[in-house]
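Protocol step 6 of 9: fold each sequence in the batch and record its C-alpha cells directly after the sequence line. For illustration, a two-sequence batch is reproduced in full.

Sequence one:
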Amino acid sequence: MRAYTRRALERSAELTRQNKLVEAVATAEAVFETADSDEHREIAAWLVDHADDYVRDPAGGE
C-alpha cells in the first residue's frame, strides 16, 4: 500500500473519532477511487485490522 493511502486511511479514522463523518468519508473515498485492484485488497485488509481505530484512539486514549 502506498504511504499516501495509509496516511489517508489513518486520517479518515481520526476524523471519524472526531465525528467529522463527511470529511472522513471524503478522505477515504479519494484513495478508494485511485487504488488499483492490488491496493484495494491491501486497503480491505488494513480496514479489517484497524477497525477499532475508527471508534477509539489507537494510542489507547479513549
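Sequence two, same batch, same settings:
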Amino acid sequence: MDFSKLYRPSALNSYQFIALTGLIMSVAAHLILHYFVHRMPEGFNWLYLCWAGLYIVGSLLNLFGKPDEGHHHHH
C-alpha cells in the first residue's frame, strides 16, 4: 500500500485535492471573518468536518481503488 497517496501532491486524486483546497479556503475565510468582520456564521465549523469527510473518501478511493478504474485501454 502506497501511503504517499495521502500526502504527496502529485499522487492525490480529485476528491483529495478539492478537500484540501476547500480546507485552505475555509481557514482563510475563518481568519478573515474572525479578525476583520468579528462575526462567524452559525455552523461554519461544520465545513471542516465536510472537508475531512471528503478527504477520507478520496483517500480510500485512492488507496483501494483500481488504478485503471474508468479507463478502457486496448493494447
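Proceed to step 7 once all outputs are recorded. Observation for sequence two: The longest helix spans residues 14-37.
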